């Protein structure tokens, strides 16, 4: 079916099923994405409830108007931006933010898709529980987008991705029907799993409007340490040792490079540097333990054994909640420092964990073969996810290397693919990586994806241009 633009006449036809508050100005925040790669277009609608969402999607299906679901706008691959083609309806879930229910005894809460992640954290905490999904943009990212991209974050090692934290969904399908799948069940083997099909589909198969989320008991004690390691191989050995000691008590295990500290010193000098002398490589370890266990003592024991084994040479263990926050601020502000420096090419990749040291070594050689650049490699070592970003040398700018961006991206992604990894670990495909999915994706999987898309969205109105090539 040929798609058509959302005209003023079309928008007027929707007024009978929506409140006046549902009609929004197309402010810049709806039409831009964090890295400035695209400028979008669209008419913004923000319905009150799932019936309003269904009303909009049904009308779009009947007239062939494209729909771009919109969460917090924090996505980094352009999935929330429609830069060309017919003018779409930008369907914002921002007014659907309610916590519909919390069942602490079940470790479950039901939340609407427009809820901000930090607000979900606060609601869970008020009930004495933990919702463990955590990313740097937790103050603005919304649940629908987090599920739509199967977001990861810093706690995947212990709790899993967004997919692993969801029990059920409510969603509007591309024809406007509402799927009432908000079950709070841990076991439900009643046919195909539509929940896991919609999670990670980036708005191309429907609009998630609410979710039943898994909660967890809050750890009785939490601790954080920074430890200096010789390199990525030693970091992996330290992770194995930590899990031998603490099991599932290890919540996060982040690796960082000296380059990240240098960028912080250059762009965010108010952030306290954790070491008197910047190490080449170091890790952040976060643990959450049950009642009766002392996190600081456990980390001290871990450090002593790791030091004896030659895995670590220095370290510091947080002695207060303020110091824990300071350690985490170093990790969480590295992406902002990167943004201020301006990368030539950024890569959200994952690899089999044992391949990471070899990839980092080989990657440096590959980049050096293209030109003189700085590399800031950091990320979630505990789940194999690296943020491998390439920057100009000091004194030069990103604009000086526009002609080399594609070569860098291709070289990095080719190496990742060769080593059995993924070119999209946690950010999704969006529009940025459609070509990468075509290049590296298994052809049988791609054919199945196209069949699913054609079956659920035969008119192609849902987020056209995202994930799958036209």
UniProtKB/TrEMBL annotation:
Domain FAD-binding PCMH-type: residue ranges: 31-218
Names of the cofactor(s): FAD
Chain segments annotated as transmembrane: none
Keyword set, alphabetical order: FAD, Flavoprotein
GO molecular function, one term: FAD binding
A GO biological-process term: respiratory electron transport chain
UniProt cross-references to PROSITE patterns, sorted A to Z: FAD_PCMH (PS51387)
InterPro entries in alphabetical order: FAD-bd_oxidored_4_C (IPR004113), FAD-bd_PCMH (IPR016166), FAD-bd_PCMH-like_sf (IPR036318), FAD-bd_PCMH_sub2 (IPR016169), FAD-linked_Oxase-like_C (IPR016164), FAD-oxidored/transferase_4 (IPR051264), Oxid_FAD_bind_N (IPR006094), Vanillyl_alc_oxidase_C-sub2 (IPR016171)
Superkingdom of the source species: Bacteria
Pfam families reported for this sequence: FAD-oxidase_C (PF02913), FAD_binding_4 (PF01565)
Family that this chain belongs to: Belongs to the FAD-binding oxidoreductase/transferase type 4 family.
Name assigned to this protein: FAD/FMN-containing dehydrogenase
């Amino acid at each position: 079916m040929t798609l058509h633009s959302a005209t003023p006449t079309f928008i007027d036809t929707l007024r009978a099923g929506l409140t006046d508050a549902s009609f929004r100005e197309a402010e810049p925040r709806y039409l831009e994405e964090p890295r400035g790669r695209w400028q979008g277009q669209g008419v913004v609608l923000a319905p009150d409830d799932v019936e309003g969402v269904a009303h909009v999607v049904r009308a779009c299906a009947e007239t062939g108007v494209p729909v771009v679901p919109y969460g917090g706008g924090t996505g980094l691959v352009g999935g929330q931006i429609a830069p060309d083609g017919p003018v779409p309806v930008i369907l914002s879930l921002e007014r659907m933010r309610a916590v519909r229910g919390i069942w602490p005894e079940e470790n479950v809460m039901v939340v609407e898709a427009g809820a901000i992640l930090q607000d979900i954290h606060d609601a869970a905490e008020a009930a004495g529980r933990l919702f463990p999904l955590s990313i740097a943009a937790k103050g603005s990212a919304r649940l629908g987008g987090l599920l739509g991209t199967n977001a990861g974050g810093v706690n995947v090692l212990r709790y899993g991705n967004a997919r692993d934290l969801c029990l059920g969904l409510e969603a509007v399908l591309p024809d406007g029907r509402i799927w009432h799948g908000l079950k709070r069940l841990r076991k439900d083997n009643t046919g195909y799993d539509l929940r896991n099909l919609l999670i990670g589909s980036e708005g191309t198969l429907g609009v998630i409007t609410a979710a039943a989320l898994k909660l967890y008991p809050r750890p009785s004690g939490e601790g954080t340490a920074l430890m200096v390691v010789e390199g990525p191989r030693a970091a992996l050995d330290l992770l194995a040792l930590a899990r031998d000691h603490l099991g599932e008590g290890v919540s996060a295990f982040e690796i960082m490079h000296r380059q990240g500290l240098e960028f912080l010193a250059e762009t965010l000098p108010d952030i306290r540097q954790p070491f008197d002398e910047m190490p080449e490589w170091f890790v952040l370890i976060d643990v959450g333990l049950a009642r009766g266990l002392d996190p600081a003592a456990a980390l001290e024991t871990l450090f002593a054994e790791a030091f004896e084994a030659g895995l670590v040479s220095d370290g510091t263990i947080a002695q207060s909640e303020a110091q824990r926050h300071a350690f985490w601020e170093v990790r969480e502000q590295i992406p902002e420092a990167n943004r201020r420096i301006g990368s030539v090419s950024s890569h959200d990749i994952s690899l089999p964990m044992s391949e990471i040291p070899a990839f980092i070594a080989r990657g440096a050689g590959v980049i050096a073969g293209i030109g003189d650049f700085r590399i800031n490699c950091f990320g979630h070592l505990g789940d194999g996810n690296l943020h491998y970003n390439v920057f100009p040398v000091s004194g030069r700018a990103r604009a000086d290397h526009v002609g080399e961006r594609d070569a860098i991206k291709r070289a990095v992604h080719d190496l990742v693919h060769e080593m059995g990894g993924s070119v999209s670990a946690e950010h999704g495909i969006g529009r940025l990586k459609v070509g990468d999915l075509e290049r590296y994706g298994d052809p049988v999987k791609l054919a199945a994806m196209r069949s699913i898309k054609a079956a659920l969205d035969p008119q192609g109105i849902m987020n056209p241009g995202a994930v799958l090539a036209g």
